[in-house]
Amino acid sequence: MAEFFDALNKDHIAFIGRQPVFFVATAAPDARINLSPKGYDVVRVLGATQIAYLDLGGSGNETQAHLAQDGRITLMFCAFDNPALILRVYGRGRFVMAGDDGYAALAAHFPRLPGARQVFVIDIDSVQTSCGWGVPHMTLERPRETLAKAHRQWPGEQKLAALAERTRSIDGLPVRAQTVIPAWDG
To answer: What's the half-sphere exposure (Cβ side, CA atoms, 13 Å) at 94?
Structure first.
């Protein structure tokens, strides 16, 4: 049975902190729905009605494009162990890119990861929990380090040029190209 809350409580926050993976969903008018899995230790609860995650450069920037158009975002956390639980955070999101005012203060909440390009901040509208009984039991073998390794090996000048060229989402929506590589992006 699903249950709704106006804000995160201490049990929700503890549950979020134990999850090694989460999912992000966004949509914009006349665009595909974007659903992305995320790993690494990149989620932080900033308060009962605000959560953020550090975004690493990858194959696209759909979340930024969708938030600029619509603002709606859902984060989903699910237990692959016991007790079974699914937790969804519904809200309105914004992005703060590396080099923007406020980025350094937000980035201080997260580990220093290569490829960090922006922080997504979500103001929570509601929180939903549900049973999760259909989610299989799985055991985490280890984190996948491929993305961080790729960012560490990509020469800075090539990375900057490639990121500056990325100004459209896969559906042609505008994205703000990264123009500053964070100092800790070694």
So the answer is: 7
